[in-house]
Amino acid sequence: MRLQPVFRNRFLPYLLVLPQLALTGIFFFWPAGVALYQSLLRTDPFGLRSRFVGVANFVRLFSDHYYLHSVKLSFWFSFLVTFLAMGLALLLAVMANKRIRGARIYRTLLVWPYAVAPATAAVLWSFIFQPQIGIIGRALKTVGITWNYYLNAPQALALVILVSVWKQISYNFIFFLAGLQSIPQALIEAAAVDGASSRRIFWRIVFPLLSPTTFFLTIMNLNYAFFETFGVIDALTKGGPGKATETLSYKVYVDGMVNLNIGSSAAQSVVLLVVVILLTAFQFKFVERKVHYA
Amino acid sequence: MRRFVSLFLVGLVVWGWVALAQQEVPPGRIAIEFWHAFRGALGDLTQQLIDKFNQSQDKYWVVGVYKGSYTETMDAAIAAFRAGKPPHIVQIFEVGTATMMMSGAIYPVYQLFADTGVPFNPDDFIPGVKGYYSFPDGRMAAMPWNSSTAVLWYNKDAFRKAGLDPNNPPRTWAEVREAAAKIKAAGAAEIPLSCAWFTWTQFEQFGAIHNIPFATRANGFDGLDAVLTLDHPVYVRHLANLIEMSKEGLFVYGGRDSAPDALFPSGQAAMLIASSALLARVKREAQFEWGITYLPYYDDVVEKPYNSIIGGAALWVLKRPGATLEEYKGVAEFFRFISSPEMAGWWHMQSGYVPVTFGGYEYAKSQGYYEANPGADIAILQLSREPTTENTRGLRLGYLPAIRVVIYEEVEKAFQGQQSAEQALKNVVARGNALLREFEALYK
What we know:
Strand order of the largest sheet of chain B: 2-1-3-10-4
Shape of chain A: globular
Number of helices of chain B: 19
CATH architecture of the largest domain in chain B: 3-Layer(aba) Sandwich
CATH superfamily of chain A: MetI-like
Largest sheet of chain A: 2 strands, antiparallel
Number of domains of chain A: 1
Number of strands of chain A: 2
CATH class of chain A: Mainly Alpha
Oligomer: heterodimer
Helix content of chain A: over 70%
Radius of gyration of chain A: 23 Å
Strand order of the largest sheet of chain A: 1-2
Helix content of chain B: 40-55%
Largest sheet of chain B: 5 strands, mixed
Shape of chain B: globular
Number of domains of chain B: 2
Order of helices and strands of chain B: HEHEHEHHHEEHHEHHHEEHEEHHHHHHH
Distance between the termini of chain A: 18 Å
Strand content of chain A: under 5%
Structural class of chain A: mainly alpha
CATH topology of chain A: MetI-like fold
Largest interface: A-B, 27 and 40 residues
CATH topology of the largest domain in chain B: D-Maltodextrin-Binding Protein, domain 2
């Protein structure tokens, strides 16, 4: 039987959710509404002349093959970042969950990178990978690899992915570790008694029981890769070389804040909004079914 | 322990409060807000300049606020303007000039001085600087402040190692190439030649000193309907030349904007084409003997190179709702103060930017600055070459920051070997023109 809490006062429940509704309204719906409105206008930077242009901003966007390239790039980028960040974090969490000496120290250390701001992380990594002065940058040169991410598109993309993944592993690690620790030890012991190998135990018992965590993290990581890798890209490559690392959200920034093309930038934000709504809806509809809530 | 922590926190709060109080306007003074993009050494100098003004009189009080990079400062000013609370003065980089002029949000400097009755002599400004920030009819729109130009920095120690004369730096691109080859052959430096602000130095400056247009309509000065002319054969030839040098290891593309700056003071690049304002950093960091010289040119294109153009930023006055004439008078007095010979000269000598007025130049001369700092006058001499033409006044193009990004993208593809120099510049023209038409449509 489900518990149905009952409020005596009809207005109390509304009053209680009001702060959250107000926050959502002010910080989500209002800006989104403004973006939608701006995307239909052609506006000068100072906002003194605005003209309604209908969907012209969108038409221009989708007839620009550079934009379509950016769409493709963003999906690849987000997929790779999500996959790598989650895979590595799970591996580390499984290892740190073992009864080993100093496990607490490893756990603490693995959480640290999360405290570093993305732009700061990127600057730290750029010191390491800088083609002329970075330690690894120079080392790669001495072993004969021409390392110059300023000019080499695949190298630039690889570097941006590496830093984005490194930054997100800690977050995933915390959740995976918590998930692992909440799995009843009895299940694992029972399987071990039945003679299951540790690999089999992991894929048949641990991994399925982790699925709520994995599902949650997939959504969080995709959102991270789409929206929060801005600092990394800005500090490392600024979208270059060419347009090799210009993801959708970075392009919104460049067109809106650097180029001051407000209309186009707003239209791009709207596209991004739609993409995220679709992605999340898709996941809840098709992926969540397979999730096993313990 | 807990007591110590709380004491520490209280101390922190008090300290922050004191620091804030220093920014507070003394009673009886009229406050003037000034947003700028300088921190570190330049930020300190800016604050010193403001302090000097505040102490020089007892009527006005300028409050300087650091607002981030040039782009961030401009964004902040635009956001504040939209919210009805802009600062009186904002520092805007040179590529934002067209946007500011067209905006209708500014109080042009010539009008400011006329309305407030503060004396002002526009002819005291160096023509190359003044022209960049003036309307087509010659009236000044903004107050020139920190201006620089591009120069060639070279490492004299590396030159000696390569058997080159350190006191006779290359003048033409043929000589640069020859020097680069010798440096490479002698292993005198890791990188023979690199260049910072690639779009600014290799197209905007390059076009000016060769007297070839960057865009039609006098580089955009005469109208918003300008189109790019970067597919001009001289640009194509130059880019092809750099790509070839890059293949031979004589030139290294070091990234966008200021990223390659570090290559020179670290001693890795024997030659670097970069801003003259790199001076302070080179002085502080370089562990070798260095020199500055003029930008190289193709002597079969022009016999004598023309003047280069400026970079840097200027001070713009914004229309601020509710601001009184008295406040604007304070702005005008501040501008008069910073462009006085002593202050313009002081700023030039301390910061490494060029003096924006003749008075400032003469003042620096009278202080023996150029004898003590050989090469410090190269920038100003290069900027004031005569005669100027419509290709050497600067650029007045909308969405210029976006056009620079387009150039970077296409040039980077060419350096990677994905397209030829000619194709790259054709793409630049096509994509850049689309941006120019969008900007034009804003003001139709």
